[in-house]
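anyone seen this seq b4? input:
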Amino acid sequence: MSLTSNIIITMNGVIKLNPYWVFPIGFVVIETLVVIFINSASSGGHNLYNTCTANLLTEAMKLGIALYSVISMNLWNDLMRVNRTTVIAFGASNLMYAFNNNLMHYSLGALPPAIFIVAINALRTVLTSIFQYLVSGKSLLPRQGVACVLLVLSFAASSYSDIINVITNGNFSGSQLALLMFLAGLYSSISVTASLTQEKLLKDAPQIMVSNVINYTYGVALQLIGVTYLKLAIGSPVFRGFDVWWVWLIPVLYGLSGISVSFILKYFDNIIKLICSCIIMLVVHTVSAYLKSENKFDLSFMVCWLLTIAAVYLYNTKPEDENETGLNKNVNTKGKSASF
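predicted toks r here
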């Protein structure tokens, strides 16, 4: 598929969709529910359930879905023929994700969370827009570059009040700025490398579920190591918090979210995933304000919505004279591309 998301809005206002639009929308809906459930299962910033067990159950669910698909579609021989380089690449990207998960926990403890989250989201957007050509073979169109700039501004606007409060209260020193630059740069570089690697692997894969079996097998193995360590070294109960029935919904929803991401990376790109993440943040803010009957719709929030909508429009608008040129040229081979 092309580098654009291919939810195409032509300059004359005609909207053209293909069936894959369901994955970004599904990702936004599911992730919103996940965040709401996690917030309900948290107290004072601490989760009331064993997150490692939840992650293990998530990876096991995704692996189960992928295996069922492979077996039902009689793709077992295709799985056995996957070359060693692809297997190693999936393993390397999963190790990078595992390292980043630990780096995230450390960074949120060492730095103001609002500033760190904005920094990594902005850096990931910039780095992804610069190096996306490694996956697609083409650079972003000018309007798509503008869309990425708007997305960065949207991430900043989303936490504007929190950032101002941290700075004005004197809770952010010069040494923390240096640490922020280092940790955010390291996290974002690893994240973008892993994401682009997986996008490339999934786009090149003839069958996405065959690749997902390999990918999620690594996920299960790494999470199993984490659960075992917490049990043996710390004595943490494996199913702590799972006596509440709806906590089981968290790994289920996370599993469905993970499946959606794999389809987004195959049929769309990492920029679209970042746009979805920004929309999720805004939707969660809106839903939380409604459920708590709070008025949180300040100027920065409205600006964030406007910037995000503008970014979505610019990134997905397809001028009529680009029908067969540039990034919007249709590619229908090996599942790489499909226009809406």
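The CA atoms of residues 202 and 297 lie 39 Å apart. Residues 1-11, 323-340 have pLDDT under 50 and may be disordered. kinda curious what u guys think
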